[in-house]
Amino acid sequence: MESRSVNDAELARDIAEEAGRLLLAIRAEGREDGKALGVRGDHEANALILARLAAARPGDAILSEEAGDDRVRCACPRVWIVDPLDGTREYSEGRDDWAVHVALAVDRVPLIGAVALPAQGVTFDSGQQFATIETPRRPRMVVSRTRPPEAALTVARALDAELIPMGSAGAKAMAVVDGRADIYLHAGGQYEWDNCAPAAVAIAAGLSATRLDGAALVYNCEDPMLPDLLICRAELRDVVLAILAGT
């Protein structure tokens, strides 16, 4: 029988924070750098997360970026979707805009999520209380540090939005959750593990989280690619979607 001594949101948060502490400790050792550091971090954080989930929720399926994909998960109503280290480049460069994602999709809906930002000392989860944040007169949009998608730049020009370069998908999405930004738009390719936990937290915070055509985000698909994403303040959703529809 599965242990339910903690609820799913608490479990996701606990595991994400534990993996984050491990990643910080690995980086602090200074034994590796560059790609080798990222590879070790990914591997060890993944092993920790999978072991914790297997012990706490043995009846659930798991989809992780760093593990083989068992398609048996497609028939499971409860699937944990995990990115042990989102933003490997930022982690390896000693930056703080990387994350740990632990999410639970139930019947393909991103119901539970935790996004830890270990180097920033903060974790967001779908079970917490969120403050109401008003959209400023000039919206702020988080974009990739190195390759912002043209769709994001088009929306930014139309809204005269301030662009804020940032690293991982989790860091970008949580910047919208905590009020440092108002829009996160991605196009050009992501996988379910890149955005399931951020989407679950964003939805719990009252934000809009959809595909770029306004369609719902669906998880635990046979092909885990989920190529585009829009997380934004609810009052900006329709105007952003209209701009995208007109391009």
Q: What characteristics describe this protein?
A:
5-stranded mixed beta sheet, single chain, alpha/beta, 247 residues, 10 strands, 38% helix, Fructose-1,6-Bisphosphatase, Chain A, domain 1, globular, 2 domains, D-Maltodextrin-Binding Protein, domain 2
Topology (SSEs and partners):
Elements (H helix, E strand, L loop, with lengths): L7 H22 L4 H23 L4 E4 L13 E9 L1 H5 L6 E8 L2 E9 L4 E4 L14 E5 L5 H10 L2 E5 L2 H9 L5 E4 L5 H13 L3 E3 L18 E4 L1 H12 L2
Parallel strand pairs: 1-2, 6-7, 6-8
Antiparallel strand pairs: 2-3, 3-4, 4-5, 8-10, 9-10
Helix pairs in contact: 1-2, 5-6
GO molecular function: 3'(2'),5'-bisphosphate nucleotidase activity
Catalytic activity: adenosine 3',5'-bisphosphate + H2O = AMP + phosphate
Protein name: 3'(2'),5-bisphosphonucleoside 3'(2')-phosphohydrolase
